[in-house]
Design goal:
Layout lengths: L1 H17 L4 H20 L6 H8 L5 H6 L7 H7 L4 E14 L2 E13 L4 E9 L2 H14 L2 E2 L21 E5 L2 E7 L6 E2 L2 H9 L5 E6 L5 H13 L8 H11 L1
Parallel strand pairs: 7-8
Antiparallel strand pairs: 1-2, 2-3, 3-4, 5-6, 6-8
Length: 250
């Protein structure tokens, strides 16, 4: 009887944790999150020149921020310029370190952030507690935010809409290699399950991919995909095109 009661209690707990939030609860959660964001921005004392410009309203959006050549040194910059940024925990594990006193346990979290349009980043944080490790990873992801250039680079489409990437790119992390190729409209995300969230967070809707290495390592897989998307900002010019550009700037 005790075993059956424990089993029944575990099933009830499982159902409670799997319960979906109601629209009212989701709305309250969103309002609470927005209040926390506004409070964090109001209490923020910038330590960098770019941070002071953001808080003063001299920089209105992230495009202007990156165009000026600034680098995100404070996570509050992203909170102020991208109010609706999304966050997702992509990997969480418990680690151990051998010391003279015995095993020292800690938690390591990997968080993915993105605005669903043109920006994406991934960060890692570790701490002896669960929640602080996730918060550290979130801050690190915001400071590692990358701008993604979207387009329609597929010769099968040429619709001139930013639904894919402009050209083929490749990124790497450790042994993992991720190659992304432009795809025509309606193809979808033909990629591994672990990096679908990465592409959707960056606003990419159609893409093909080729991968190499140990893609079962979630963190390396996600980091390689983010690195590949960051390569969309690096345009390669031929020697003839470089001469024409130099002649134009003279």
């Amino acid at each position: 009887m005790i075993a059956m009661a424990i089993q029944d209690m575990g099933q009830r707990r499982g159902k409670r944790t799997e319960r979906e939030l109601t629209p009212e609860e989701l709305e309250r959660q969103a309002l609470r999150k927005e209040e926390d964001r506004q409070k964090a921005i109001s209490d923020w004392v910038p330590k960098t020149e770019s941070g002071r410009m953001v808080k003063a309203g001299q920089i209105a959006n992230m495009d202007d921020f990156f165009t000026r050549g600034y680098k995100v040194m404070e996570p509050q910059v992203v909170d102020a310029l991208i109010p609706g940024i999304k966050e997702k925990l992509v990997h969480f594990t418990k680690t151990a370190r051998i010391t003279r006193q015995g095993r020292s346990f800690s938690f390591r979290a990997s968080v993915l952030v993105g605005d669903g349009n043109s920006y994406v980043g991934v960060g890692i944080g570790s701490d002896r507690e669960r929640i602080p490790s996730i918060e550290k990873a979130t801050r690190a992801a915001k400071m590692a935010l990358k701008r993604v250039k979207r387009g329609c680079g597929s010769w099968e489409c040429r619709c001139k809409e930013p639904h894919s990437i402009p050209f083929e790119v490749e990124g790497n992390s450790s042994s993992v290699r991720v190659r992304l190729l432009p795809a025509p409209k309606g193809t979808g995300l033909v990629v591994g399950n672990h990096i679908k969230e990465v592409l959707s967070f960056a606003g990419v809707k159609d893409v093909w991919s080729k991968t190499k290495g140990s893609t079962a390592t979630t963190l390396d897989f996600v980091s390689a995909a983010v690195d590949a998307l960051a390569q969309t900002n690096k345009m390669r010019y031929s020697d003839d095109m470089e001469r024409k550009l130099e002649a134009r700037t003279r």
